[in-house]
Amino acid sequence: MDNEVSLPRDFDALRTMILDRREMLPKRLAQIAAYALSNPDEIAFGTAASIAQTAGVQPSTLIRFAQHLGFDGFTSLQSVFRERLRERQVSYEERLSALRGDTHGLSKNRVILNGFLTAASHSIETISHNVEEDVLASAVDILAGAETIYLLARRRSYPITAYMAYAFGKLKIRNQLIESTAGIDPEILSFAKPTDAAIAISFSPYASATIEHAAALAARNVPVVAITDSAFSPLAQSAKVWFEAAEGDFSGFRSLSGTMALAMALTVSVAEKRRSF
Predict the structure, then answer these.
(1) What is the CATH number of domain 113-275?
(2) pLDDT digits over 63-87, tens only?
(3) 2, pLDDT greater than 60
(4) Vertex 252, ends 74 and 259: CA angle to 5°?
């Protein structure tokens, strides 16, 4: 059948297909799509029941999602996610074992440290794989050409922009960290012009202020470079250029290692680009 011939046989092709169709997906299917792209390992090894429970949908929705993409059922779709893991050097089981740590002969403190180091390593590896050269170049061009760079983030993402503000300052690049204790962030952002740019960072559950500020800037033609965790993130919708940063976690505490590395790469690359002007 022609439909079978056109089915994606690897994760990258599947991801492209989902992103191309995201605007047309019904609400529940879009919810599954967002979960699948953000949690591919769980899709690969979970059961339909466990995945549905975690994603907040009915198991039948998984079948509908798979069929919507042209697969005959969820198992066929799941095989693409499993093949993705087979192509990687470290197996899913090995990563889980490393994350939990070999507790034999180790103190609890060392087990916790090993867990966070493993999560950080996994985050860096994943982000390194996901960042595309042309996207990176576009982001650097936008930021290097900006008169002022506005930095937007809240909650756990805030340390990233705080360090970027510090580094930009040291590099003599004009920037504005949005952190007003007086509650005048919208007023500060009202000064932003199309000749400026913004970096916005947020992960699920998304900080409403960051989402709203990024959307307001985009509506005024201020280019936004976003770092977020899914193509279905509301932050990605406002961004001219965006990066997917799916961080690993240990015991429910997510790493920021990959995002920090990406943020500092952007910061230093912008400085290097400006030197060539």
Answers:
(1) 3.40.50.10490
(2) 999 999 999 899 999 998 888 766 5
(3) no
(4) 90
